[in-house]
Amino acid sequence: MGQLSRRSVLASAAAGGATALLASSASPSHAAAPSSPQQPLADPKGHDPIGLKWLEGGNPAELAGGTTWGVPWAKGSFAPGQEFSLTTESGDAVPMQSWPIGWWPDGSVKWTAHSVGGSTPSGDRYVLKAGSAQNPAKPLTVRTTRGGITVDTGVVQVTFGREGEHLVKSIKRGSKVVAEAGCLVASRQDKSSTDRAAVVKSESFTGDVQSAHVEQDGPVRAVIKVWGKHRKGRRAWLPFVVRFYLYAGSDAIRVVHSFIYDGNPEMDFVNGLGVRFAVPMRGAPHDRHVRFAGEGKGVFAEAVRGITGLRRNPGDAVKKAQYEGKATPETSTWDSRVTDRLHWIPAFGDYSLRQLNAHGFEIHKRTKKGHAWIRSDGGRRAEGLAYVGSPAGGLAFGMRNFWQLHPTELEVTGAAGDEAQATVWMWSPRAGAMDVRFFHDGLGQDTYEKQLDALEITYEDYEPGYDTPHGVARTTELTFWALEATPTAERFTELAAANATPPLLVASPEHLHSAGVFGSWTPVDRSSDAKKQLEDRLEAIHRYHREQVDQRSWYGFWDYGDVMHSYDDVRHVWRYDVGGYAWDNSELSTDLWLWYHYLRTGDAKAFRLAEAMTRHTGEVDVYHLGRYKGLGTRHGVQHWGDSAKQVRISNAGYRRMYYFLTADERVGDLLHDLIDSDRTFLTVDPGRKVREEPIDPHPKALSVGKTTDWGAMALAWLTEWERNGDPIAKKKLINGATTLAALPNGWAQGGELTYNLSDGKFSSATEPSVSVGSLNCVFGLIELMTELLDLVDLPEAKDQWLMYCRLYNGTKEEQREATGDDWGSQNLRQSYSRATAYAAKHMDDDRLAARAWAELRTGHAGYPDDQDFGSKRVEGPSVLNPVDEADFSSNASAQYGLAVIQCLALVGDHLD
């Protein structure tokens, strides 16, 4: 079958209707529309058409198969069954699939997801509106049998295994098999590569599919979810979940691969982790081609048996054809001095591009196993795409964030034979083995007293047994193209660009804001000198932290996506080796700040930075199985090393924006998994080191914090309720808010609170007392309450919350008058200026509004008004590499950013 371009798909005129997402029995959070709204839904208001554009701008030449995005709608705009249509700006209909992913409490649609497919985008802007959906000329189909699941995109047919070692049985283009036997491969060794052991034993594992499930089945998009474990003999470990995305009219397969490390870090050193396909080789070796994408538009292009540069010339037309990846003329037309000696020309069947660090890759090749590799070329940062095949077709295979997630590799073996092996190595076997052991021996910290004393010097909260990586995860995105021929150099660079940065359609900040989602924020506004100054400062701190990622080389398999916590201005480095000052791990809501910055600006760089953090913090910094499942780990030298395992880090609030903006199913799974995180209080007591006596946890009387703990759990319940998932989520959300508000001093109440696991209710002694900490609201509680109180009419809760917001930065006299005691010397007062602003807005209090801006400008524990928001260049020999240095920390930047954003939204009219 010839290539079906997306341009052709867009021109089709077949009629059709919107297709809803199939409910997944394995993922109950992926649900259909509510069957019984809280109240009868009025006639939908309708909505003006909205404009969409590509995130990076322009008109991308290729998609990674297709693209899926989310759009919010104001409350009451649409009923759940509403259809949507998409057109280009000029009015041409675009085939699209739509389904709801979020609902308002009245049952109207809050968020919809949309997908378009095809291989070639045909415009830089689109219009989305209510109306009949357009179907592709040839809709995608899914067929399930006992032997497998087959998806036909109209260009390729892909059959998935439902059990056994082959996740993908075959990829066909028409009647021709382009690739087959798609499987997961992993290997381990029993000793570290760095310890120079005399004997090191290795063994290999293959992914074993336990189940495969159709999550979505067209007409534009299909999603196949496969899960299982890596197995050899009786041992099964490294659980995986792999999703395959296919789009109508496309020859691409997008893959989202997630695995969990569940080994013993003292003896399970992973030394290889990859995805492999077998690719049938057709034609003579001189008509078989290998391609690697280098940096930018660079392409490494060779044939398995080269016929250029020889002592004898086969003919200019022959050489040109081979170089361009086309079929060479019949050998009878060549110079016979070449054709008579073809058997003397070595055939290089094995190729490898190895990106073992973020600053350099090398390409090697060899004739076959048992012979030496020779170095072919090298460069700095490869785009992460390879191809093996012939003019009769082949497989392009790649990995997103290829150099950022090093050590990685793209490998082709056996291309000189009947079948090549194409492998994407997410952890290259050429690198040293993955070493996830803790970085020190405990330093004698065998009691709580010693551990708390050590916390005073390194800020590391260490405890034996809590430094384990058992249960952390990593997600990697890959793309495969079943091509009908060896791609031209230009097409190959277009595929590489789509693989590295999958094009995404987005709505404007103005539309996102008009829908009323995500609480208090507004699009960028530079309408006055005062606002311009604040906007410039917000941009400055964001740009600084974004650029630090590259300047400080914050890359690597386990690290990419995170930023550092605090700076060491003597060494001119971030405190990467000093306890709790190293990796940030979402401390003080860095994730929220980055996502709000994107919402306001619509900036592509802001989105990609926040996206990388979401992929990291939701996987690496959180436990997905074992004793700590549902908990995250506090900031530290290693992402899993600190002994503070808390729900404030696994916080669903840090992932939900990405989910609703992209409808990403993997992040949807992570959000759903957190609705039971309150059960972790049965096994791990966050306050164990500071209690006078150990507690015996009981399901009806758990020790759960009313702010950082409850706020994080409540954000998971809010998200589950929005997604129409488990009804207990709404029950616990509302019960928690109302019972906390019923305490004598609401969220400021002191004493030992007890939490009931079954219904989410709090209780305590009835005597009023006060206990307020500076961290109470800086892990998403302010953002949660802002949204919750807009969604649900809870007058008592709102009154108590307004009291809390008004009093945190209030005078001791005001605090004593309202609660019977003052609240002590509170820290992070600049952060809480947004709480003051919230009270000002909802109490219509000009005095409080002025106070909020004064608190922000004073900059207590943050950035005061006279802060230098610039940076200076530091070069060698003071530093290893030239860097920019500024008086910023990620904690202060995140909280300053959130405070400014929310103060502008709430009391911006009082700024001048």
TrEMBL record:
Compositionally skewed regions (Low complexity) per UniProt: 21-42
Domain PcRGLX/YetA-like N-terminal RIFT barrel: 50-130
Highest taxon in the source lineage: Bacteria
Domain PcRGLX/YetA-like central beta-sandwich: 141-496
Keyword annotations of the record: Signal
Signal peptide (UniProt feature, chain positions): 1-31
PROSITE patterns reported in the protein's UniProt record: TAT
Keyword Signal: yes
Residue ranges of the region described as Disordered: 21-51
Keyword rRNA-binding among record annotations: no
Domain PcRGLX/YetA-like C-terminal alpha/alpha toroid per the UniProt entry, residue ranges: 502-911
InterPro entries to which the protein is assigned, alphabetical: PcRGLX/YetA-like (IPR045793), PcRGLX/YetA_2nd (IPR048330), PcRGLX/YetA_3rd (IPR048331), PcRGLX_1st (IPR048329), TAT_signal (IPR006311)
Protein name: Tat pathway signal sequence domain protein
